Amino acid sequence: MDFIDPRAEFRREVGEWLDRELTDELREEFAREITYLRVPMAWSPEVLEFNRRLGAKGWIGLHWPTKYGGGGRTLRDQLVVVEELARRYAKIVSSQSLHVTSILLAHGTEELKMEVIPRVATGEIEISLGYTEPNAGSDVANIQMRAVEKDDHYVVSGEKIFNTMAHWASYHWLLARTDPTAQPKHRGLTMFLVDLKTPGITVRPIQTIDDSRTNLVHYDEVKVPKSRVVGQKNRGFYVAMDALGQERLFVFSPYFYRTLFNDIVQYMKKARRNGRALAEDPIVRHALAELDVKIAVSDLLYERVIWAIENGKPVISDVSMFKMFMTETGQELVRRTLDLIGLAGLLRPESRHAVVDGLVAMGQNATIFHTFAGGASELMRNLIAIRGYGLPGD
Amino acid sequence: MDLNLNESQLILRRAAREFLAAECAPSMVKAMESDPRGYPEELWQRIVQMGWPGIVIPEEFGGNEVGFIDLLVVLQEMGRAALPGPFFSTAVLSGLAIMEGGSAEQQRALLPRICSGELLMSLALGEPGVDFGLDHLGTTAVARNGRHSISGTKVFVPDAHVAQILLCVASAARSAKGPGGLSAFLVKTASTGVTVSPLETNLRDKQFEVVFANVRAETGDALGGVGAARGWLERALDKAMLARCAEMIGAGRKALEMSVEYAKVRVQFGKPIGTLQAIQHHCANLATCVETAELMTYRAGWMVEQGLACRRDILRAKAWTNEACKRAAALAHQIHGGMGFTREYDLYLYTGRMTSYAQLLGGTGWCYEQIADDIGLVKPG
């Protein structure tokens, strides 16, 4: 048994670089626009340029093979970059492409890999996830969007919803139904990597209550060449499930919450309320101590997943536990902190009376979706019980 | 990073589990609840034969010291078996204290007798109105003519009915508080002025009130010298907190296994209740509690073994194990329903330890206070 961070040296290198490169303007924009996994209406040129600089540094796709523009290093190294960014309220803005590329490497044709992955690695492009439909949320197997085989292509029609990043992405990672009679239903799905500029695709904005944007993506008889199929026809469900574990590591970061927690503590150390120093209020002290503990627990669950992936162990139960625990802890951090701060906690970042840079206020709405996006907590618990502990499935 | 136990730790765990399965059946544990001694003497002798009393003691003193993680492994198995007896008070609480604080001479005098099983000891620390820790203790040791007179009331002294020697924590004078003021005196339980009376607990474990009334002690009886105990007592208690965590997660693992098994075999509405999402979610929450408490405990234990500064990690581990085990115990009972509520069934043996131990050696509130100080929420003045 050991708990040594084998990445300490690389972590220092990344941290020093980021401290130099992240200007005050960039930090401010990241904190305002992307904390809590939000997506703005549009990226500023500066943010996109910063993403390309990360790419040029070789820090997007560190764990992919060099022949596709990756760094030929480990998942751990890539996560160090993600973690050090999260620690500074920043991120790789093209983060969904990281998830897709992991699957593409395992299931994509050589041609697709050569076309797409090098451009992901330079930080130029994003790939939007196209799983969810109005009637297929947690129930991915119920996807209805139709892809009908015809000559050398498929004709795709239907609608996807909550496809975050589709307004900026170059590609759409589309799971569609190729066999409407398949039983069980998940055996009739196929995975495609679609160029979002293909005629017949419309991307419409959906405004969300965290002042962020997601999208509805409509396909009207879109011709998708067969060369765009990833993996085998009707095996798309299995292709999609392949990397869901890693995705959850890339998006929900205990490093973000640790930084937020530290900033909250800094505020509480000095703040007074109702004539009293918050630091001596037992309610404040106990709440923050409990949150400190829960973030430390989240951190260990996160580390355990990385360790399991590295050692080729089944991770589905561990990843589910991490995702559920991390997101529920994040919500709790915001909910309880708002109560400790009092009225000022309601003020948004742009208010001159805002405290903790308005970050807690922002979390009030922004953490809501974390416990259902990317695998609802209920589903996570089912997976722990069924896959982790052998309880009977339905 | 590696979360696996090593080969020898796995062997140790297997050996402990097999031994306890054979020697510490639930029926025996239940029978001991109403036994005045609280454990069979033969069982203690067999534990001595296993070499366990010397588990924190180096070979030169007759022990067979193992690494700190190995100690946690054994304690986890003891928690899993709900083992009764003086192991924790003698080998862990007292053994760690003597190792941390004893002079070479004291170590030579006491440790071999602990290893051989002939000496039982316990720690007299807590007092009415003081949950844990070394602050606010009222027991005094007043020096007079090179001797000390100890007075005060200690509570939750485990196994005081069988311990020949109590390690009594006292301050030099009523006003003395803070670094340098504390001593830990080795006091024979049979000394004049020592009164031991049982405390009736839910768990039916052997806890005692010990009143010290002008009990005489020599300067040489102070472990590590008079007035110098705070530093090493803190280190010993930190380790003891994790040792307690290990017992709790052992009981937690057992409760988790029983609950999952019960959910698979208990049929209601024509199908196993484990097919119901409500029960599945209870099981998932229970599993999360136990797995996370285990991770936190072993991580802090690893830091102890590496000699790293880890006070906050230990506090986090105890606070989390407390809360996780209390929740886990409630969930295990909810899954079991009426069956788990009977004394015929074994579940209460484990859930009782999970909830009671959460109060001992650092309750959650106490841990939170320490953590709050540690993260810089300093009380003015």
Overall CATH architecture of the largest domain in chain B: Up-down Bundle
Structural class of chain A: alpha+beta
Tell me, rounded to a whole number, the average pLDDT of chain A: 94
What's the mean pLDDT score of chain B?
95
Notes on the structure:
The complex is a heterodimer of chains A (394) and B (381). By secondary structure, chain A is α+β, with helices and mostly antiparallel strands. Chain A is 45% helix and 15% strand. In chain A, the strands form three sheets. A four-stranded mixed sheet of chain A has the order 1-4-5-8. In chain A, a hairpin with a 2-residue loop joins strand 2 and strand 3. Chain A is globular. Chain B has 381 residues and is an alpha+beta fold. Helix content of chain B is 49%, strand content 15%. Chain B has a four-stranded antiparallel sheet with strand order 2-3-7-6, with no helix packed on it. Chain B starts with 6 loop residues before the first helix and ends in a 7-residue tail after the last helix. At the A-B interface, helix 9, helix 10, helix 11 and helix 13 of A face helix 7, helix 8, helix 9 and helix 11 of B.
